[in-house]
Amino acid sequence: MPETAYPRETTALLFVDPYNDFLSEGGKIYPRIKPIADEVGLLDNLRQLDGAIRAAGIQVVIVPHRRWEPGDYETWDHFNPSQRSIMQRHSFARGEWGGEWHPDFAPKLGDLVAHEHWGQSGFANTDLDFLLKQKGIAHVIVVGLLANTCIESTARYAMELGYHVTLVRDATAALTQEMMHAAHDLNGPTFAHSILTTVEVIAALPTTSRSKEIVQ
Amino acid sequence: MPETAYPRETTALLFVDPYNDFLSEGGKIYPRIKPIADEVGLLDNLRQLDGAIRAAGIQVVIVPHRRWEPGDYETWDHFNPSQRSIMQRHSFARGEWGGEWHPDFAPKLGDLVAHEHWGQSGFANTDLDFLLKQKGIAHVIVVGLLANTCIESTARYAMELGYHVTLVRDATAALTQEMMHAAHDLNGPTFAHSILTTVEVIAALPTTSRSKEIVQ
Amino acid sequence: MPETAYPRETTALLFVDPYNDFLSEGGKIYPRIKPIADEVGLLDNLRQLDGAIRAAGIQVVIVPHRRWEPGDYETWDHFNPSQRSIMQRHSFARGEWGGEWHPDFAPKLGDLVAHEHWGQSGFANTDLDFLLKQKGIAHVIVVGLLANTCIESTARYAMELGYHVTLVRDATAALTQEMMHAAHDLNGPTFAHSILTTVEVIAALPTTSRSKEIVQ
Amino acid sequence: MPETAYPRETTALLFVDPYNDFLSEGGKIYPRIKPIADEVGLLDNLRQLDGAIRAAGIQVVIVPHRRWEPGDYETWDHFNPSQRSIMQRHSFARGEWGGEWHPDFAPKLGDLVAHEHWGQSGFANTDLDFLLKQKGIAHVIVVGLLANTCIESTARYAMELGYHVTLVRDATAALTQEMMHAAHDLNGPTFAHSILTTVEVIAALPTTSRSKEIVQ
Q1: How distant is the Cα of B114 from the closest Cα of chain C, in angstroms?
Q2: ω before D146 within 30° of 0 (cis)?
């Protein structure tokens, strides 16, 4: 049973990198996460969670990775292995289908969209903390991809910034099963305040929706 | 063979949490890391690396965790599981032996000592980035404890802040072998620029010491 | 008339640099601010405001400048003119009377004390934002010294971090009258949400004190 | 005579807010800064400085304010007076001429363009620090608009982040003469490392251009 309550006015869903390249058939990275995505029921869980969050009147925030552009990283003093991979794959290329939102998870009216992040943490070098402050958010539920990279770094930063942090073990995926295990059983328990399933999060949401005057 | 050169003027060793509670017989956490510390040769490696770094004239920076004080965390809106554990154990208690530096790794003249960090990252809520900037540091070698918590968060932050990041797989430890595996084989390769052994780092250091006028 | 309400649970008083060197007869910098401090009634206003804030059950946060230590700044790549001045004067020297709290404004039980700041902003390179987040603070009232340096930088940062910011024009001082004018009439109105007098702030505070269980 | 050297490899020009609304005849804010812009020779100085910086092979970084979009700020818990003004004027509106680059100062190949900033500081809630780190920048020369708001906050942040900071007193403007005086004679000297004229900066630049292999 989840112990945490998620107050409507102080909770946000952080949806990290809902791009076609990650979440859609034909996406550049989708085949590499598909085994685990299928196993945990990722797409269905994201749809149910997204729907329940919106029905509860809770703020949705899209937390997007930098969309690759020609020249990216090439003149940097030092890019890391993930960035080298993006340079080779052109992941989330700006102006291409892979860098567009998965159609089920595109931002809707009232959603916030943070600056694109260059690395793994949606907070680093972006306005995400600022946008959350302007809404009085204190609790973040972090979902999307990948469990041990962008989700984990965003969640580690959220903790350091003073937020209450929830991970959702079946609303994310990774390249391997042991990466999922590392994210949720080894590392997550050292920094996250709660690690739940989609069903458990939905059960913990407030049951009546807030006034629509703000989100419309 | 390491590909990275470590320029004397732009490299720093970040030594995270060199407290008795972590590194000394009788320390509160030492028994829990001792199996892996012994296996990788942690203490000897830290001594050799520390010596080689200083002989090369490279900047040493101590990156200390918050020393526990009475009242810590108790009135916070939400502390995380690691902080709950610290509240119970009184880890690194200020004014007690456990919160003193391991005698081999106490700061020496010319070392920098960052603000104490509340969470896992030595950069979060501290002056570490600022101190490194004032020395023109671009490369950080991150050692100390624990591999998958403070070391990993400090290294993830260093990458997001634009530093070149090196992990040293036998100059750290963790509670379990699979946590070491997660830190160095699953997660580290996604954000760190180089993951080496102590011997490899020492081999890559510049061979002649810089002018002593600064460090003395 | 102040338009702003200061909710007890989400407001904090940020008291910047309440050192003897700034606020006490015999302090190193006090003679330079005394003309304006006397003119605005600084000490009396700080006492009244501090008392009213505590009576209202509002969180007090001490925001201290780096206490000078031998060697400070000397090996930095570039210190600024204020830091050069501190090197010469040994302002707020650690272990000396000038670096001790003014006796009326020393931290009391339940107060927070942020990390010391190296520059002008109490948020830069410190844990101030984090401490405020752990208390759910959204409104900050910034008082202390100097109006156009540490107070202004702390207040500019608070705005960028998403806080509601109040300046108090007679609970601060500066070296010259035109610096006060710049802080409150030229610059403050571009970033602060409210610029009040001590009397106006006190009139806007909640009238009944919160439960004492937290602050005791 | 300027004492500062500006090494080609570690210096960047930060050009803040080069929008038509600020710098072009017909811009929404231009009429309000025109008296001082004309007096100091702003446009000519910016052109000469920009040309000399590029001829010297020094990195140019565009530091843009948030372009106004419908809905901006309206649902925030608290916007500040400057943001209220932008809501009313639609300053730098996205998709309109006022929010386009002044034609002489649009980004060129090899320039960096930071995330748009919501407040006054080009560093707050953006990737500016990160981009500078990836180029090894240690010295920033901050020009553009307005002297006492975005330029001053960007420069105050740069100092807190550990950069060497230069202000250029005739490569900026403000609404009033006393705001210019506050920026350059009252406040700037407390945080900036150097306050020069355009002619003095140009005289201090390195005289031969760097290899073009990086910037092309």
Answers
A1: 10
A2: yes
Q: What is the pLDDT of residues C139-156, one digit of tens each?
A: 999 999 999 999 999 999
CA nearest neighbour of C177 among C80, C61, C33: C33
Chain B interface test: which of C130, C157, C213 (most B C-beta within 10 Å): C130
Reported ipTM: 0.93
Q: What's the predicted TM-score (pTM) here?
A: 0.94
Residues A65-84 as b or e (16 or more Cβ within 10 Å = b): bbbbeeebbeebebbbebbe
Q: Give the closest of A130, A162, A163 to C162, CB-based.
A: A130
Chain D residue numbers with beta carbons less than 8 Å from the beta carbon of A110 are: 75
Distance CA D151, CA D154 (A): 5
Per-residue DSSP letter, D169:
E
**CA B63 to CA B42: how far, in whole Å?**
18
Cβ neighbours of A132 in C, within 8 Å: 162
Q: Please check the confidence at residue D211 and state whether its pLDDT lies above 60.
A: no
| Cα–Cα distance measured from residue C196 to residue C184, given in angstroms and rounded to the nearest whole number | 9
Cα–Cα distance measured from residue A204 to residue A14, given in angstroms and rounded to the nearest whole number:
17
Distance CA D71, CA A110 (A): 9
User: CA torsion sign, D204 to D209 to D212 to D216?
Assistant: positive
Contact in structure between C188 and C159 (CB atoms under 8 Å): no
* pLDDT exceeds 80 at position C1: no
Contact C56, C207 (CB under 8 A): yes
Predicted confidence (pLDDT) per residue in A74-112, tens digit:
888 888 888 888 989 999 999 999 999 999 999 999 999
Contact assessment for residue B38 and residue B83, using Cβ atoms and an 8 Å cutoff: no
D14, D143 contact by CB (below 8 A): yes
Spatial distance between the Cα atoms of B152 and B158, rounded to a whole number of angstroms: 10
Half-sphere exposure (CA, 13 Å, Cβ side) for A154?
A: 34
Say whether D153 sits in a helix, a strand or coil. helix
Token digits of residue D14 = 């930060």
Asked whether the beta carbons of C154 and C16 are under 8 A apart, the reply is: yes
Instruction: Identify the CA nearest to D167 among candidates D77, D45, D32, D23.
Output: D45
3-class DSSP state of C17:
coil
Residues of chain B in contact with residue A81, where contact means CB-CB under 8 angstroms, are 189-193
Q: Count Cα neighbours of D114 within 13 Å in the Cβ-side half-sphere.
A: 36
CA D157 vs CA D82, D123, D152: distances in Å: 19, 7, 9
